[in-house]
Amino acid sequence: MNKLFIKYIICLLISTLFISHASIAQQAKEANNLSALDVGQAIPDELWDAPIKVVNDPNGKSTINLKDYKGKLIILDFWGTYCASCIQNFPKMEQLQSTPEFKDRIKILAITKEKESKINSFFSSEVGKDYTYVHSVVEDTIMNNFFPHRTIPHMVWILPDGSLFNTTSSGEVTEQNIRALLSKKNTKMAIKKDLEYNKHLFLEEEVNLNDHFEMPFYQIFVKGAYPGLPSQNKFWKNEQGKAYGRQFINKSLGSIYYSIASELFEKKGVSFNQNRIINRTSNKYLSNPLEVSKLPYKERILNTYSYELVVPKDLADSLYDYMLEDLNRYTSYRAKLDNFEQDCYILTSTSKNNKLQTSGGKYEFNFGDTKQFIRNYPMVHLVSILNSLQSVVLPVIDETGYTGNLDMNFQNVNNLDLLKADLLKYGLELRKTTRPLMMLIIKDK
Predict the structure, then answer these.
(1) For residue 336, is it within any domain?
(2) Does the residue 364 lie in any domain?
(3) Could you give the 3-state DSSP secondary structure of residue 124?
């Protein structure tokens, strides 16, 4: 994720500005009497005529009506300042809106429930200043009543004839789909129907468990992204705090393997990291799950999965063993934990002089482009960082025996030679050798 996004999101958690508007309060009161629209329904006059507060209006207006765009293909883009993927979609939406073929025939209108003051602050920030072309509704209540949803981005398509065509994810907003609708041709778009994501996966209603009805096992495994659910993990835990149920929604298969293996390794007292994966399959994404997010939309959703398993509470200790068995059963791969002689790096001390000892202070680390350092963190944290670096492709094992916290500065951790040189300055050597190690091995069936 872009560092500016991270910085901005942190700032959001620290302060939020609030301004009240009597007209918007009245608008919200009236909106409570409005009903959600179904696909195929005509947009009612109440929505066409409702006054809508906006920012960044190309004509300098502070209030508009949806009827200003009647007769065009209207795409409503529901977003929020906390939604990085929403913001990353803005350039694509602007490019489509500006395309000569579509410019006068479509209207892409961003919509947020957030306060005008907060949105203006966003567009004045380091992150938002690049998106001041975004014409956005603010402090919305009416649109959300007609087009309710739980997750964003959320796209609503209104045809030139004034009827609701579809609700989709942002990935369906393409030149091909827009061109087809403007030409009145058939187009296949995946409908985004939001589900309650605090329940068991794909159960419309939560199961009411009682003395006469139990659900000792619940299992579902689905390939393909579901646009009406967020990407998330969820646990169900027993009275002792142990997970007897685990849910993965819209995750790459590699990330699911990673999570399961982390739990199985921990149960055996071994720390797991990406360098403990041996991928002997034709699917490179199993050992590089983050790469899936960089794929084009259509290819990305085909590499996305949802999986949930719930076992009896007294079998909580075996949950992740069952989960690995499930993946072996339902996918084209077979994975297991195994011990054997493995190439690795060992981190050892070259000097008894304590060059690592921290001077205390704030716990922090930074591995950006200009500053790379670690302050007042334990050795286990350094080893975890080393195992996450692209420059270090083998498992790193700590054999320093160092127990205190440390301070270190680096030139460039993504250059293995420079990294080794920096470690030597602190009396540490990163040396390649062979050790018997537990590994996660994934093979094609």
Answers:
(1) no
(2) yes
(3) helix
d(CA 357, CA 403): 10
Answer whether 244's CB lies under 8 Å from 310's CB. yes
- Which residue, 331, 358, 383, sits at the end of a domain? 331
Task: DSSP letter for 71, please.
Answer: T
Given this model, what pLDDT does residue 393 score?
92
Which residues of the chain fall short of a pLDDT of 70? 1-34, 204-214, 353
Domain hosting residue 292, numbered range: 218-331
Is residue 438 within 8 A of residue 268, CB to CB? The reply is yes
Domain boundary among 160, 182, 204: 182
Summary mean pLDDT of the chain = 88
pTM: 0.74
H or E element, residue 432? strand 428-444
Q: Please, are residues 320 and 264 in contact by the beta-carbon 8 Å criterion? A: yes
Classified as helix, coil or strand, 291 is: helix
Say yes or no: 54 and 122 in one domain.
yes
Write the DSSP string, 83-137.
-HHHHHHHHHHHHHHH-TTTTTTEEEEEE--S-HHHHHHHHHSTTGGGGTT--EE
* The two three-digit tokens of residue 115, written as one number: 């306060």
Q: Classify residue 59 by its DSSP letter.
A: T
Q: Model confidence over 5-38: pLDDT tens digits?
A: 444 433 443 333 222 333 333 343 344 445 789 9
* pLDDT tens, residue by residue, 61-93: 999 999 999 999 999 999 999 999 899 999 999
